[in-house]
């Protein structure tokens, strides 16, 4: 197993309690519910099991809500002086709020204005990198006049104050466009950030987490007990709790590589592939029946087996 994967898991999972770092909090929400109840993803096919299954669906939806909120917050919040990313922060806003009337679809385009192409947006005066305050789009975004404000009220695509301020900050920084992040080649190396506390980090990944915590004037939580670490790791990689024999074996293993051995074992487990495939099956709306007015059998189960094999 690559050291980078091991490092990420070690950094994310060895912390105890509600970590204030956003990304660690998202991981924690995906592992266990806010009351710490164990979640079993394979309830028996009994009436009680079906009720539990419905409860699990509600829990997953709750966690998806928190994950979505967390990711949106991560992409939209910008600290003073930070470089605003067009592809990660501005493009999602423009695509959702503006491109319907000022995007690539000529059938819906209004005022012959395109905001998806920088040259045309700047030429039309929508963005004015040299004099940001004169940007026509920005003026309309902050307008209090219902006849001037953009997006118009009847579009039901109103911008939040956070989104407005983020767009203004982006224009102040030059209104630069970027390729979508998925098409940008990641750097071969990323410099490890320097931190005030040089004793806490165990590996380079820790330094990134600690740097963000220090930026927010926060301190790391205490390391999690071994049994809790094992529970979090097992839930993260397989979606299932560790068995009692696995707990006993881990607690009895005093070697320095005990945690690495656990991660290697879980990654080699078929349960890991099944757990990774679950998200894709959910996105594909996997089900063996329609489940609505016409509850017709669809026999989707062969695709589940295929998805598990691929994962």
Summarize the entry for a quick read:
51% of the residues lie in helices and 0% in strands. It is mostly helical and 311 residues long.
Mean pLDDT: 77
Specify the structural class. Answer: mainly alpha
The major pleated sheet works out as: none
How many beta-strand elements? 0
- Overall body shape: flat
How much of the sequence lies in strands comes to under 5%
In total, the number of domains comes to: 2
Count of helical stretches: 14
* End-to-end distance: 16 Å
Low-confidence stretches: 1-78
| Integer-rounded radius of gyration | 24 Å
Q: What percentage of residues falls in helices of 4 or more residues?
A: 40-55%
Give the SSE string.
HHHHHHHHHHHHHH
């Amino acid at each position: 197993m690559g050291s980078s994967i091991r490092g990420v898991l070690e950094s994310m999972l060895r912390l105890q309690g509600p970590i204030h770092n956003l990304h660690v909090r998202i991981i924690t929400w995906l592992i266990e519910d806010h009351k710490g109840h164990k979640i079993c993803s394979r309830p028996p096919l009994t009436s009680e099991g079906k009720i539990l299954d419905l409860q699990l669906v509600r829990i997953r939806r709750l966690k998806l809500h928190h994950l979505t909120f967390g990711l949106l917050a991560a992409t939209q919040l910008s600290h003073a002086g930070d470089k605003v990313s067009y592809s990660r922060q501005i493009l999602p806003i423009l695509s959702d709020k503006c491109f319907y009337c000022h995007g690539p679809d000529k059938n819906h385009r209004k005022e012959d204005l395109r905001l998806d192409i920088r040259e045309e947006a700047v030429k039309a005066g929508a963005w004015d990198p040299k004099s940001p305050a004169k940007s026509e789009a920005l003026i309309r975004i902050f307008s209090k006049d219902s006849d001037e404000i953009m997006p118009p009220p009847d579009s039901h695509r109103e911008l939040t104050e956070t989104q407005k301020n983020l767009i203004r900050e982006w224009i102040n920084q030059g209104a630069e466009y970027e390729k979508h992040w998925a098409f940008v080649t990641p750097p071969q190396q990323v410099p490890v950030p320097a931190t005030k506390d040089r004793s806490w980090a165990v590996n380079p990944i820790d330094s990134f987490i600690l740097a963000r915590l220090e930026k927010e004037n926060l301190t790391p939580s205490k390391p999690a007990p071994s049994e809790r670490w094992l529970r979090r790791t097992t839930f993260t990689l397989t979606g299932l709790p560790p068995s009692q024999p696995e707990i006993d074996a881990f607690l009895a293993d005093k070697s320095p590589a005990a945690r690495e051995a656990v991660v290697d074992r879980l990654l080699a487990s078929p349960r890991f592939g099944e757990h990774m495939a679950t998200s894709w099956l959910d996105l594909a709306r996997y089900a063996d029946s329609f489940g609505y007015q016409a509850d017709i059998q669809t026999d989707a189960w062969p695709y589940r087996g295929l998805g598990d094999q691929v994962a």
